[in-house]
Amino acid sequence: TIVIRSRAMQRLSNLVAENGQRYYLLTKQDDRDAHDIKLVFTDGCEVWDKTVTKDELKKWAKEASMDLSHYMEETLKALTRLDSSRTDFQYEVKIEGSRLQLIWKKVVSTDNIKVWNSMEYGI
After folding, report:
1. Most buried among 2, 15, 51, 98, by the most CB within 10 A?
2. Three-state DSSP class for 65?
3. Average confidence (pLDDT) over 1-17
4. Nearest-angstrom CA–CA distance, 78 and 108
């Protein structure tokens, strides 16, 4: 008997950008290094990958005036769509050459949209 255990949270999400373009995002977070988030993003033709470090997350949390744990929780909701029945996010993708910028917005109400963060990827 072979037992395979994953020490990582993994989630493949289907994201539809504001322009209607469909993308796929694999989000991985290892139990041993819970603050680093590994991302693989594709449009079906091109692939971008990035490891978001704890230092980057701390910086972005500070810019958003949030504590790190709450910021991580909101970021993972946006990237994994795990709570999509109760929380709605909008996505924008900008591609320039080999660089990709993913921008997500949490919809708070019909009249109020707050930008939480954006990430840049390079291949």
Report:
1. 15
2. coil
3. 72
4. 13
pTM for the whole structure: 0.74
Here the tokens at position 26 are 């694999």
Q: Is 22's pLDDT higher than 80?
A: yes
Phi, psi dihedrals of residue 5, rounded to the nearest 5°: -120, 135
Bridge partner list, 50: 39
- List, in order, residues 6 or more apart from 80 with CB less than 8 Å away: 11, 13, 27
C-alpha dihedral sign at 85, 31, 58, 60: negative
Gap between the Cα atoms of 123 and 66, Å rounded: 30
Given a contact cutoff of 8 angstroms between Cβ atoms, the answer to whether 33 and 26 are in contact is no
Q: Over 60: is that where the pLDDT of 116 sits? A: no
Q: What gap in Å lies between CA 86 and CA 95, rounded to an integer? A: 29
Torsional sign, CA 45, 11, 100, 91: positive
Q: What is the DSSP secondary structure assignment for residue 33, as one 8-state letter?
A: G
